[in-house]
Amino acid sequence: MKQTVPALALLLTLAACGGASTDAAKTEAKQEAAVATGTAYVIDTATTSVQWRATHKGGFAPRFGAIKVTDGTLNVENGAVTGGNFEVNMNSLTTDPASVTEEGKKSTDLDGHLKSGDFFDAAKYPTAKFVITAVAPFDSTKGKSLLPGATNLISGNLTLKDSTLNITFPAQITVTDAEVTANAKFVIDRSAWGISYKTEGSPENWMISKDVEIGFSLKAAKK
């Protein structure tokens, strides 16, 4: 019998050039990881999808693409996720060619720019990580969700480059005996992790929105 319960969600990291708007994830200092008890469910990296979307100031020149999750586990006890973590390969970041419309520009050029020292420095920091710290029911009267049908609030420590912060966002989660599925869409501020183009106050950095929209569709199966 299928039931919707508190559970984990996935995040993963982002892209750098810019933004979305609405419903920013609550961002705080790093917190203690949740104790993972119960049965382990392994994230299916082949079917898990993580997307990013970013823009220039005012929502101009939207860019979007994907990043791969390479490893992860969720723990479920009494029908609820108790903890978990996952990793993302920043070198897998790609830009959808459909989002690059300027003549003479290629999506692969933006891939290289985002993975360079200008933004994520994927050669030095190849892995981003998310560790669950808390799970709670989502109350639609007290918060908004970019994704309709959110059931839970997920909190976790997100590590990008050499910085770790705790974020909280709504997610839609379903648990069965065989698998856990989770979907989410939310916005983070890249500058909170010190991700800026050139310098924080430079015109080049100012032109890029600080907001980055993250979306994911996660599936994890019982070991």
Concise structural overview:
The protein is mostly beta strands and 223 residues long. It contains 2 helices and 10 strands; from the N terminus they run βββββαββββαβ.
Q: Could you explain the architecture of this structure?
A:
- Keywords: Signal.
- This protein has 223 residues and is mostly beta strands.
- The protein has a single domain (26-222), classed as Lipocalin (Beta Barrel).
- 6% of the residues lie in helices and 48% in strands.
- It contains two helices and ten strands, in the order E-E-E-E-E-H-E-E-E-E-H-E.
- Strands 1, 2, 3, 4, 5, 6, 7, 8, 9 and 10 form a ten-stranded antiparallel β-sheet that branches.
- The longest helix has 9 residues, at 107-115.
- Mean pLDDT is 86; it is low at 1-22.
Question: How widely separated are the two ends?
Answer: 19 Å
Strands, total number? 10
- Element order: H for helix, E for strand: EEEEEHEEEEHE
Helix content bin? under 10%
Cα Rg: 17 Å
- The CATH class, by name, is Mainly Beta
What is the annotated CATH architecture?
Beta Barrel
